[in-house]
Amino acid sequence: MNTNILKGAGAIAVLAVVVLGIVYWPNIKGTLPALQKPDQDIAEVIDRNNDDPALPGENGTSFPLKLPDNMKIEVFARDLPGARVMAFGPDGSMWVTQTSKGAVTRLDVKDGKVATQEAIYTNLTSPHGLAFDTDGSMYVAEAGSVSVVNPAANPAFRKIADLPTQGGGHSTRTIEFGPDGRLYVSIGSSCNVCDESDPRRAAIYSMNRDGSDFKPFATGLRNSVFFDWADLDGRMWATENSRDLMGDDVPPDEVNLITAGGNYGWPTCYGANVHDTSFDKKAYIRNPCMEPMELPAKVEIQAHSAPLGMDFVPEEGWPEDYWYDIIVALHGSWNRTEPTGYKLVRVKIDAQGDYQGTEDFITGWLQDGNALGRPVDVLIQPGGTMYVSDDKAGVIYRISRTIPAM
């Protein structure tokens, strides 16, 4: 082949790469906090700060995390890459799913500290949800199944339900026992936005303890990774990760108040019942996004924040101003031009169960485009203690109240 032709083709290829880089750099840049190794070890930074709060951080910087007054943060457990869902067993040990590692790990807790930790169950397929029954049985949700095991009596898994995996897409399955004693499971969509062929996708289902009577509870939920019931009135709330490829600020991520039989609109609607006309081109006699057929978001959150874990603040041991509020972990964006999330927020709920607004609770994991960690699950205890998992830093934080000296 002519040398000049080869040189010309090479120049065109280089030019194409440069042009694509210029066009797509803002979005590529937005992935970096989620993917690149942080320039500081957040566990070491927290340890140093707790040893001597007067010391500056690395490179002379101040402590990066900003907490409410009279609260402190420490590292409860470390060396847990991919740490996601946490649950306390009946003996006081904490169990953690390491989804990316295919493991479920037990942390033996003595005098409030982790004495030993061991990956008890390994070679699993994206284990995520954990739930303990009253008899000590532990339920584990993998991408394609829910199984039960009794760690103290019988180490063998017994599958009770199959879950859909066809088409790929969202693979995290979260499970919780509801106030009615049934086991609930959230199943994310197989796609960014599409019409699902399997009705089990993009929905929350419930079942009996043995997996029987598997039936839909709520639909139109693209990826409600976490959910819980309020102690105040027993209503279910769920976080929701909305679709991509509509820009930096649309559509909003959500926190939804979930009702039995409710349809929350995906893929046709988002947010406060806004019609997604970029996907849905069908003609309608009526507005396809209106109550009571489609239910709107209760709380809207900055698009691409990726709200995940959530828990309600109990009365015992917490300031009255926090009672009934929801602490939500914003895992952080991966495809937004300017990264967002990477923090904990406080969804304020009053004594009547009504939403009163959202504000930051703990910030600082995102520093100048560099993510020191990505909070995932939130577990709040009576007595003023909260645990937060971080799948990027591979740690579990303990946040607790400090009583000021009189």
Overview of the molecule:
- The chain has 406 residues and is mainly β.
- It has a single domain (37-401), classed as Neuraminidase.
- Helices cover 11% and strands 37% of the residues.
- The chain is built from two helices and 28 strands.
- A hairpin with a 2-residue loop joins β24 (366-367) and β25 (370-371).
- It is globular and about 65 Å long.
Q: Could you list some keywords that capture this structure?
A:
mainly beta; 4-stranded antiparallel beta sheet; 2 helices; globular
Shape: globular
Q: How far is the first residue's CA from the last residue's CA?
A: 86 Å
Please work out how many helical segments DSSP would assign: 2
Mean model confidence by pLDDT: 92
Strand content: 35-45%
**In which order are the strands of the major sheet placed?**
1-28-27-26
Rg, Cα atoms, Å: 22 Å
Provide the CATH topology: Neuraminidase
Number of DSSP strand runs: 28
User: Could you give the order of the helices and strands?
Assistant: HHEEEEEEEEEEEEEEEEEEEEEEEEEEEE
Q: How many domains make up the coordinates? A: 1
Note poorly predicted spans: 16-23
**Helix proportion range:** 10-25%
CATH class (first level) name? Mainly Beta
Q: Structural class from helices and strands? A: mainly beta
Q: How does CATH name the architecture?
A: 6 Propeller
Main β sheet profile: 4 strands, antiparallel
Name the CATH superfamily classification.
TolB, C-terminal domain
